[in-house]
Specification:
With 246 residues, the protein is α/β, with parallel strands linked by helices. It has one domain: Bifunctional carbon monoxide dehydrogenase/acetyl-coa synthase(codh/acs), Chain M, domain 3 (2-Layer Sandwich). It is built from seven helices and eight strands. The strands form two sheets. It has a five-stranded mixed sheet with strand order 1-4-8-5-3, sandwiched between helices. A three-stranded antiparallel sheet has the order 2-7-6. Strand 6 and strand 7 form a beta hairpin. Helix 5 runs parallel beside helix 7. The radius of gyration is 19 Å and the shape is globular. The protein starts with a helix and ends with a helix. It binds iron/sulfur cluster. The site of iron/sulfur cluster has 11 residues, from helix 5, helix 6 and helix 7.
Amino acid sequence: MELYNTIIEKIDGMLGSSQPRRFDYDPAKCWEDVGGNQLVMMKEAAYELGGDNKPAVNYACVTSTDGFADRDEILVYGKDLKEISGSVPFARIAVIKVKELSGENEDDTEPLFRAIQDIDFVKYHVYPKGYMIRSSSDSFREQVRVSKEAVKKGITFEQVGNSYISQFKKNPDILSVKMIFLTIDDADYAEMKKDAKKVRDITKTLSKILEGMATDCHSCNLREICDEVEGLKELHFGKEKKEFKG
Ligand code: SF4
């Protein structure tokens, strides 16, 4: 499934000038998870990622193409959690590789659909202790309040990234995940925000198509995104043909 590939291809060009720290996925190195919503009060907070109206972007792209996310890894651009002392810009980007969709049977869209559903599920089901995530799907923001206690205990993006990846990997259709965390100043957060919106639009359209909506492009309110993103129309009409045959 290549619907998000043009967005994934842009990522490397938006990450600023610094070299990342890279960590292989290690499920033994997840940060403690509290298993549900938590409250980090302002007086307990060390700082906020994306605080003081700084950028705070989040999106996740799914692909089955080789070369984008071939292994489970965590990349950190900029200061790590235990090195930050005040509000910083923030982005978290996930690139998720799913099983290849061969196009030869009726269930080809299922791994993709499940992976996409899992992205939202995982987004709202990771609760690292002392790392309070506040998301807004309308503005694509993901702001994080980090507690003084977590910083004192040495919380890192490696550990938080491992927590996310271990959740994703509960889905057998997900082969590997690249988690990118950014806190540097010179990344292109404005462009990332645009791509976060585009990802949301593609995912919404895809969900509608997979739900089996009507097929008249002229009267469809999703036409703009289908005209822009290669593969959506083919997916819709390919699916209709299979259902008609079946
Ligand atoms: S392919 Fe046509 S009918 Fe299907 S979602 Fe896109 S615009 Fe709508």
